[in-house]
Amino acid sequence: MADFSVQDLSSSQTQSSLQASPQVVLKVSSIDKSVNKKAYKTQNNCVICNVNFAKGGPVSVQKHTCRFCYQAVCSSCSPLTAIHPSTNNLERICIPCYTRYLKEEIERENEAEKQGVISREVELRKSLNSEKMKLEEELDKVRNEQMGLKSQVLTLSSELECLNHQKINVQTSENKNDSSVPISDLLEKLREQEMENARLQKEVQTLKTSSNSRPSSSACEHCSVQ
Ligand SMILES: [Zn+2]
Ligand SMILES: [Zn+2]
């Protein structure tokens, strides 16, 4: 908040001798357009304290004019200055005008500050919204990737299941082959075959033996012919 200084204008100071205060002073943005700029001309008393400006009276009081309301005022009722919107210089201001314009300027400042806060908030919301949209896009991407990965996992799972089925089928068919010709049966058949072979060999041996025992060089026993 601006520090509005109070400049003491003693009765000895004239309007032309008003000096700019080194400190921050009230700067009036605009004055009331409907103000009567000739009002002070016909006024012989201060409009605030009613002191008479008539010369030759018991107390001689100098007549001043408030440059913001153009009313006739005494120095006691206009001890301050403010920057005038028309001249951009420090001009005499009466206490009611000072109070009024100070209040207006404070309200204007507050309003500007409020508007600043609002526009900053609007900007902040905009940037937050854009950030939110970006994040939602990212989230969508991640979700899509996740869906893709899930579908890949499902495909791989079904392929794995298929391979497992194939493996089980192979094992089952191997088991079936084993059970269709059991080893014990094969051994039995082999043994039977061997026994048959042995029998046949024995028979051949017997035949050979009987053929050898027959007298080969002697004459036929019936006809004695060799
Ligand atoms: Zn006065
Ligand atoms: Zn005034």
TrEMBL record:
Transmembrane segments annotated in the record for this chain: none
> Pfam families, per this entry?
FYVE
Chain segments carrying region Disordered: 201-226
Which portions of this protein are annotated as coiled-coil regions?
118-152
Q: Which GO terms describe its molecular function?
A: zinc ion binding
Q: Which UniProt keywords apply?
A: Coiled coil, Metal-binding, Zinc, Zinc-finger
Instruction: Enumerate the spans annotated as FYVE-type domain.
Output: 40-102
Quote the biased-composition stretches of kind Polar residues, using this chain's numbering.
203-226
Q: PROSITE patterns per the record? A: ZF_FYVE
* SUPFAM superfamilies cross-referenced by the UniProt entry: FYVE/PHD zinc finger
Protein name, entry field: FYVE-type domain-containing protein
Q: Which organism is it from?
A: Blepharisma stoltei
Give the source lineage, highest ranks first.
Eukaryota, Sar, Alveolata, Ciliophora, Postciliodesmatophora
